[in-house]
Amino acid sequence: MFPLGEPLPEQFSKYFIGQAWRAPLTTNRVLNVPVSNITFSPGCRNNWHSHTGGQLLIAVGGRGYYQEKGQPARELLPGDVVEIAPDVVHWHGAAPDNWFSHLAVECNPAINVNTWLEPVDDAQYSAATASRQAFWEGIPVDKAKDPELFEIFDIFALGEVSGHGGLDARTRLICVLASNVASQGHAAFRATLDAALGAGVTPVEVKEVVYQAVPYIGMAKAADFVGIANEVLEARGTTLPLEGQSTTTPADRFDKGLAVQRSIFGAEHIDAMRASAPENQKHIQQCLSDNCFGDFLTRKGLDVKMRELVTFSLLVSLGGCEPQVKGHIAGNVNVGNDKAVLLAVVTQLLPWIGYPRTLNAIGCLNEVLPEN
After folding, report:
1. Residue 236 gets which letter from DSSP?
2. Does the model's pTM come out above 0.70?
3. Pfam families this protein is in (predicted)?
4. Considering 67, 96, 120, which residue would you say is the last residue of a domain?
5. For the residues 179-192, what does the mean pLDDT come to?
6. Do 312 and 364 fall within a single domain?
7. 92, 57 in Cβ contact below 8 A?
8. How confident is the model at residue 186 (pLDDT cuts 50, 70, 90)?
9. What is the per-residue burial (b if ≥16 Cβ within 10 Å, else e) of 171-203?
10. Are 135 and 192 in contact (CB under 8 A)?
């Protein structure tokens, strides 16, 4: 639609990774509305930067991404408009496998100054762009055979929902991985795992998510995902077994597990629960302390705050666990995950678990943490 223009001059190209071109489209200095068509080769992106006067981007060709600092990346397709407020730190560029063009409109040109910052390194770029591409490479929904379903899920789950709530890519993908395990979504887990590893989730973190699932969904459901994780990790060159993450011994697992229980749910609550258990059921309380918490919650690789989000994701996705969901909502708050974070997690899980379980989870949230 617009000319390619010339390769960026040195004064600008030094702030780009990859090749980009610029075609100025306006020349009337009296109107003073500079507009240029910027074209990025696949994988090309500019550095983190900001504009004192703001900027408008209008996508006109191919597929690209825009990301503000601390926010999920937004995919851009022809017709999309991005309104960038003054002094907001951001980057934009092409998808890894697509050319991309946008119109760049300079706002408030009399006072608009660019501040160029550090490059968007490969890890940051992969975290922003890998999820969507990797998902469709691993999920058995063929765009050619089911185009409408593909389009609905792609736009909703991997576009609209993924950008909601402000979770960083690592947290979002870890929670979705846990949800896929609880839902027994083998293909979804494999696809999400590729995206997660591309986004910087470590092999240790992946294995700890699967291990964490064992006391909540049982080994019968978790075992397949240990195998899938191992297969994907080895295919990527990871040597197994990974370094051990256990911090307990048979002699101290109970004491350490009970200490973690008390730290998450409060000593008074846990001690009362143990004391009130009928005599013939006290062994279950023992198992909760030494196995569920002592064997698993004390492990390294994920901190307690992230483990509580993983547990919340598992329980919400299982369904029928509302009493436990409520307990772990309180536990999450105690370790620093507030209602906004938990609601963001539930929103991210919505496309994977459906509306009934999502609404049940929100009902639990509102019961434990009422709206003002």
Report:
1. T
2. yes
3. CMD
4. 120
5. 95
6. yes
7. yes
8. very high
9. bbbbbbbbbbbbbebeebbbbbbbbbbbbbbeb
10. yes
